[in-house]
Amino acid sequence: MHLKIKELTFRLKGIEFHNSFGAKAHRLTKQEMLHEMANEVIELILSYWRAHPSKEELKPLVDRFCRKRGIALVAVSTIGRIIKYLKEGSKFEER
Asked: Does residue 31 fall inside a structural domain?
């Protein structure tokens, strides 16, 4: 009997989550990720890529920039995905 209550509670939480977030509860596509991200952060990455060619070197700069403006911090992997996406869109050339 106790297991049924746990199972029903778990299912109810899933239904509530779906009702709150709907079909958008999925991993963002590249386009959605860039639209969600502050354009200022993308411009910063674009402008500093030549001087700081690795995503690990860009991370502290991006963190400082985000903290000053109250923007959510960006992970190193996200910086890498942004760089890859911008390269694919030929926003900047290979180094």
From this structure: no
Question: In Å, what is the CA distance from 61 to each residue of 12, 28, 65, 74?
Answer: 43, 24, 6, 11
Tell me the pTM: 0.57
Q: Indicate whether 42 belongs to any domain.
A: yes
Question: Around Cβ 57, how many Cβ atoms within 10 Å?
Answer: 13
**In the chain, which stretches have pLDDT less than 70?**
1-3, 17-37, 90-95
State the residue range of the domain holding 51: 37-95
Does 22 reside within a domain?
no
Q: How far apart are CA 34 and CA 26, in angstroms?
A: 15
The two three-digit tokens of residue 14, written as one number: 């899933």
Write down the pLDDT at residue 95: 47
